[in-house]
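2.7 Reproducibility. Because tokenized structures are sensitive to small changes in the input, we list the exact sequence used for Tyr recombinase domain-containing protein, including any N-terminal residues retained from the expression construct. No trimming or masking was applied before prediction.
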Amino acid sequence: MRNLKKWYTYKRDGIVYVQFKDRITGKKLTAKSTGTRNVLLADEIIREWYYDVDSFFNRGQREKAKNELEEIITASILNGQDIKDVFTKVMSSFFAGASSEDSMMFIENGSQFFIAREQKQTETPKKASKHSEIQEVMDMLDTLTFKDYLFLFWDYEKSPYIKQLKNSKSEVPYKELFNRILKSINHYSYLLDDVLLKDVTKENADNFLKEIKALGKLKDSSIIQIKSPLVQALRFAHKNGIIDTLITGDMLTSFSAKNDEKEIFTEQELQTIFDKKKNYFENEAFLLINKLLFLTGGRIGEVMALHINDLKQNLKGYYLSFDKNYNFEGKYLKCTKTKRKDVCPISNELAEELLEFIKTNPYKNKNGFIFYSEKRTEPLNYDVINHNFHKTMEKLGIKRKRLTLHSYRHTFTSLLQDAGFSDADLLFLTRHDDINQLRRYGGHITPKKEEKKRQAMDIINSYI
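Resulting structure tokens (single pass, no recycling of outputs):
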């Protein structure tokens, strides 16, 4: 019975988690977050992990199988000929009726052979799609190029992916995201081969990314923003039977965003920036926005979405309600990035500063934005805030390449980590869903972390 179900899924705080079963024992393994609330996208991710030979799951299973096989052979009374006979028998059963392509696959990559074989046995044979959005693509396969498919997939109004989500009554992504991705792909589309979608290979996709890299205009972190949508579109096509070849991110060139990580502020820099005697931002709104970003660890969209009635008071003091995010591209309010509603306590001093600033609001509307603009329905523009931030940092001599408004959030996390807050605490405080993303935030080197090296040396030295 254990072969019938390969994995189990469940939701935690709305995020889909998967528990794979060990390929040999059938026992459930440690749960893994897919990082998404979208059930359809989560299913694509899970299948990629299960059937991609180089995924974290299959790499772990391969090492485990090798270790167990070694233990069995070591502990057995089998001699070399016995082991050879068993291996020959197993291979004979696998290759009974196998095609020359399958034989070659085993020679070049044994792991890929077994996983591909399992996939053929367990997945339903592809038939003509009953869903109109998929059939529309299938009907164009004889002339549809890979390039035109990408344009189609990321065109919000025409996308088969969006149509599928709507038909299944699933939550759909924001239009601005699709527009941004489509613009990026279109900008570099002249580098794409004219290969038909049905004939596309991993080399076609990889060459596109390598060509972009060769231009020398984009950082790795920016190329990742093109690679991910590329893979998503291909994964969708494979899952829905449009193409036969599974092309995953692990099969393509890796690009690292490590060198593009945000920097953090030093304690001395924070004292300079928020000097109690002088407002270096030269504007009360800009000062308060920067203060809130640091003191709450909030995202810029969450801070700019704050309405006057989000500043509240109870018996324990003042707090801010973080339950929405402002989309600067579409100019509308949406839910927070992780769809969580939260409250953040603030000091009486900061609350009083905000209350004084609110008095300057000309619209006298409790439902209005705290950081109002000349347009009643919009908060201050992000570009204006960002320009003021960089201008102020340059004036203070704190200008660094990767120091941004988001650095306040990284600094917030790093300082609390130094103060002894656990990952679970910080996951809650920063309104994160992904522990790996949080660890990136907390991975900055601070003076206290450097001091840990000396403490470690002293402890180890004490043993000899």
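The chain is about 50% helix and 5% strand.
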